[in-house]
């Protein structure tokens, strides 16, 4: 443990939750002294070195664990760190301020972890363009054979820029993204069938509003909505025309550049003005209110990330507890008039997050070795799911979670998803196996609904186009446009119907002016190049 | 030096006087050292970074090795539509705040001063101070719980009584009122401290003399209480005017939302967005520098006007 890292820890440890770690790292620091500060690049010299790894902090560490000292960090230290003479130190970054915190960390040569990651490709491009990242191509050949095998050339391509490997992309287990949920008991009460087209959805919502099957009065929310992607993306995808078959522009803020986007806003405007969606959706970016409304049984229909409500003691379980008579079904409601009335919806690309090694890192070799270790043997599974026989049993090649495991054992992997950075979800084998493994992780009573959800989410999906060069306008305008997209959605929805046209035009003009038109031009050029 | 040589005796006496002075007062200077250190480290030190505004700042090569670009970034910022909107909003919110929030503590302080019962005065002071110690994050949570259109308590009551729900947070004009009164609620009590301190210095005999003359309570407030806190009012007004172009980050960021972005987007949130979120540090620094320069002009201007008109100033 070096003097620098110790100072770094102290600076970041403002959160009281880290007090424990601080003590520990100070002690560790005393033990190993600061002689190693002079340790040169590489690890062959037999000296103990420190590898700093970013980890998402969601503030959900169960006692006695902390985000930097828990069963998984100890596992990594024991299995990888100790044999290689490396101290692994985890650097927490709050999940909700992922990029802002990373921007700050990257600016400091001494505080920045040796392994950082980000989901936003434009951030990755920006770092790469400014020369802040290590080209790991050679390092992968030398120290990362397992890693290369695990990821495969197709996934690795996501992290390449002009022939250089500036990022190691994680792998995504499942590309299914969104589906709809509806209150079957409300439908039954009204003698209606589940909606299968956008028009039917509208009729259903109107019936929910007028006939109020839940008997909720002013609390009745026919369609639950939040200013979150899982709310507005399925709706928008229900109207836009994909630019290239089953592929389209990948970034969220590129949605307004699609034909049909205006129709989606018009529809949203109609829903809002007729009182069919959550009135305060514009305040609810974290889906907190939506979650509450759903659990209290006030919501008739909503779209969500697949499985989001189905976790043990999750939103669905609480709804059933609060309202024993309620019943929720998965639905595929939107049909896209601009794409042959198919159930168009977005799917994830096959990559996960961009894992990067900053150029200033002196531990790039160890960093690659760590990732290589994670990709080898059973380590990835252990890091995401725990120990076989204690946390899960292998059934037909699928890890099935042991529900009767003690809380202590379950808590081992409470942050498994955030520690196993090479995988988004459980990467076991092919997509279908992964889906089965994922479903097996849900409580028994929700598994059927989960299967239906995945099936719906996989219907008529549209994936991201991957260009082999970065779109510079994305790096430059992405954040501003993302912000503007939210404004367009909110303003279009909340305008009175007779003002919709004017408001929409005004906001769209603004969008084009602050970078939208440059982005559009660049995307269209890149598309043509690709042929 | 030549002067000292010419009159060594006088010079010696001066030195002697000075060392005696230092001996006597060194503790006061020692006390001053810490605040000065604070200003040097936290207020002057960071000015080194101002040069980012004139450079194409690269996160990884550092300030020194980034390329000079002259005023290019200024041109870019002044061409941004958002810049003018946020500038307008900053002025608007600050100006309205000045009108609504500035008189509130004065009125409150006078009312507290007029309270005769000692325990009630102390009790109400404490109650009034508390909001100042609550962070805006928490206030934001409370505001959302209270003023939400569908789930807020106030609208729940309104709807229960048969009224239409009021979009306190999502309609821009209603939001403005919510924003302003949240500010009053949070800061008015704390703001009374300075006025109450000034009022403790008022000679009680003035009131007795006024009583003898048969002055009513309002007369006394008008002719004794208010004039005695006038310098405090002027000083605070100048300080507030100087802050017209700078606005705190927490309050507009937390109370604001996407639906009222047209009003709630201010310079500080703008800097946060382009600087920390989008990583365009150069542009963010330009806006920050602009803010500082305009702020300086404002504070000097208002000080000048105040000196001319009332004879009171702070510089």
UniProtKB/TrEMBL annotation, chain A:
<keyword id="KW-0732">Signal</keyword>
<protein>
    <submittedName>
        <fullName>Extracellular solute-binding protein</fullName>
    </submittedName>
</protein>
<dbReference type="Pfam" id="PF01547">
    <property type="entry name" value="SBP_bac_1"/>
</dbReference>
<dbReference type="InterPro" id="IPR006059">
    <property type="entry name" value="SBP"/>
</dbReference>
<keyword id="KW-1003">Cell membrane</keyword>
<dbReference type="InterPro" id="IPR006311">
    <property type="entry name" value="TAT_signal"/>
</dbReference>
<keyword id="KW-0564">Palmitate</keyword>
<keyword id="KW-0449">Lipoprotein</keyword>
<feature type="signal peptide">
    <location>
        <begin position="1"/>
        <end position="28"/>
    </location>
</feature>
<dbReference type="InterPro" id="IPR050490">
    <property type="entry name" value="Bact_solute-bd_prot1"/>
</dbReference>
<keyword id="KW-0472">Membrane</keyword>
